[in-house]
């Protein structure tokens, strides 16, 4: 069992100010796999003070210094890939092959994209021919609080930490208390990379403790948060008193629209995408909208694909889905599946209870409902588990209306061979991202949402810009 109670503050591992142990549970076994400590106000204050002091120099560091640091982080990250993969598998249940490929891979992909974007970025520009003597200086926002969830741990940590460092910000990372182990490895990487003392700090804690302390701290200039819309609202309110910049990456209820000319792999692709990471992705295509002429065939195929999805422990190699993250989520998902049945949706695969032979661990049956409508709970709420809702539509207009009829607006998906229709529908989607026919976002393309899915953009150059202020300097040539 891992015991790691220390926090990383001002370039050193330091003991918590007060004893406040917290067990980390392996969702594959329900056993305690680690003990960490949850910080209190004194730990938060120490980390923020270190970041504030370090900003006096890092805030004015050269592009070359920042680049050297980020390149060094990438090299060590790649070397520690297996440690990161193992940590994520234990803490949040990602099957080890998924951890090694997508979970770890997302982090290195983001760091590489940041390096590329950063090299090209000009921190000083003129306003152009109409104001040749006015200059725009892109400067770091200052001390930042970075608060991350448990579902794609390194994806989210790299998106925030590396962008903040590239911008010249200093930071306090508070990873999810549910999945803190990979961030401990990450902090070792930041240490070995030679990050100047105080530029990067990490304090473990929960939302009501360290989370709230950071979001209301007078010396924190910006909060970058990824997590639930519920916490995003609380954070926005807490940050308002000191007018902090707040960047939010929140929940989703993505529509995957299958028109009658969708390609032959679209159904399988949509179901497996939904089940990836055991359905615990903010951009999961959780509502499959299907044109009525192909509806019955699609429902049958989706049920068949879901029925073949293997479920098993995270430590097992091979292609399967793991458990969901914890008991709280397991119970919530069971309730929602039951609500689906009670509210009249047609269960065509899975259902409540554990899959056969998996009596210990937070395992959920890959589940598919047909005949779902947006007024049902499962049509509206983010389930965050391996549960797909299939809905029927007749016309393009109806598909757009159903897709947009949600408080969320993160990612929507379109499957059609008709390019004109794909572009028309994409423009009408009220979401930060639209992906067509199985393509995924290009390197450095921004990730973020409309409406209650948030207001920030992460990844690539727009991800770095989120951490920059713009200063207009006039009368200087
Ligand atoms: P969560 O909101 O419960 O917790 C996220 C983080 O916020 C944790 O570190 C938690 O300790 C902290 N926190 C909670 N309440 C807080 C408060 N009042 N003040 C400060 N910090 C607080 O979310 P979760 O269960 O860890 O993650 C799942 C959610 O994250 C889902 O809704 C998912 O859609 C969302 N998510 C969004 C994106 C995106 O980029 N849009 C990516 C991944 C996950």
TrEMBL record:
The keyword Oxidoreductase applies. Its EC number is 1.2.1.83. Residues 13-473 form the Aldehyde dehydrogenase domain. It is an enzyme of class 1 (oxidoreductase). Keywords: Oxidoreductase. SUPFAM superfamilies: ALDH-like. One of its GO terms (molecular function) is oxidoreductase activity, acting on the aldehyde or oxo group of donors, NAD or NADP as acceptor. InterPro entries: Ald_DH/histidinol_DH, Ald_DH_C, Ald_DH_N, Aldehyde_DH_dom. PANTHER family: ALDEHYDE DEHYDROGENASE (PTHR42804), ALDEHYDE DEHYDROGENASE-RELATED (PTHR42804:SF1). Belongs to the aldehyde dehydrogenase family. This is 3-succinoylsemialdehyde-pyridine dehydrogenase. The gene is ald_2.
């Amino acid at each position: 069992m891992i015991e790691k109670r220390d926090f990383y503050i001002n370039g050193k591992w330091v003991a918590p100010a007060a004893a406040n142990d917290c067990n980390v549970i392996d969702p594959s076994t329900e056993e305690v796999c680690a003990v960490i400590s949850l910080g209190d106000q004194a730990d938060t204050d120490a980390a923020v003070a270190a970041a504030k002091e370090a900003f006096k120099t890092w805030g004015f560091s050269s592009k070359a210094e920042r680049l050297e640091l980020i390149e060094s982080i990438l090299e060590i990250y790649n070397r520690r890939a297996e440690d990161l993969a193992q940590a994520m598998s234990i803490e949040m249940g990602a099957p080890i092959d998924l951890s090694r490929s997508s979970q770890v891979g997302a982090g290195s992909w983001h760091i590489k994209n940041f390096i590329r974007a950063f090299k090209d970025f000009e921190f000083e520009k003129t306003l152009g021919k109409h104001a040749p003597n006015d200059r725009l200086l892109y400067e770091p926002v200052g001390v930042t609080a970075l608060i991350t969830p448990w579902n794609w741990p390194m994806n989210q940590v790299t998106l925030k930490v590396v962008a903040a460092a590239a911008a010249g910000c200093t930071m306090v990372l508070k990873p999810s208390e549910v999945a803190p182990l990979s961030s401990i490895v990450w902090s070792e990487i930041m240490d070995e990379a030679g990050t100047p003392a105080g530029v990067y700090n990490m304090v473990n804690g929960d939302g009501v403790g360290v989370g709230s302390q950071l979001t209301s701290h007078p010396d924190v200039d910006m909060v970058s948060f990824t997590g639930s819309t519920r916490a995003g609202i609380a954070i926005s309110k807490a940050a308002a008193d000191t007018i902090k910049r707040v960047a939010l990456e929140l929940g989703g209820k993505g529509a995957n629209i299958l028109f009658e000319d969708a390609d032959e792999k679209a159904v399988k692709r949509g179901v497996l995408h939904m089940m990836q990471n055991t359905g615990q992705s903010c951009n999961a295509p959780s509502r499959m909208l299907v044109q009525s002429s192909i509806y019955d065939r699609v429902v049958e195929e989706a049920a068949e694909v879901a029925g073949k999805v293997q479920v098993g422990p995270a430590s097992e190699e091979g292609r399967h889905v793991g458990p969901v993250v914890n008991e709280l989520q397991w119970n919530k998902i069971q309730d929602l599946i039951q609500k689906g049945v009670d509210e009249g949706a047609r269960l065509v695969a899975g259902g409540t209870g554990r899959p056969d032979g998996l009596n210990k661990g937070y395992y959920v049956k890959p589940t598919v409902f047909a005949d779902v409508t947006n007024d049902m709970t499962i049509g509206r709420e983010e389930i965050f588990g391996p549960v797909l809702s299939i809905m029927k539509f007749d016309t393009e207009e109806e598909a757009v209306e159903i897709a947009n009829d949600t408080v969320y607006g993160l990612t929507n998906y379109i499957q059609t061979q008709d390019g004109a229709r794909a572009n028309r529908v994409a423009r009408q989607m009220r979401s930060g991202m639209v992906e067509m026919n199985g393509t995924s976002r290009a390197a450095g393309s921004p990730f973020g949402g409309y409406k209650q899915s948030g207001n920030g953009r992460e990844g690539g150059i727009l991800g770095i810009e989120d951490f920059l202020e713009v200063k207009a300097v006039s009368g200087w040539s």
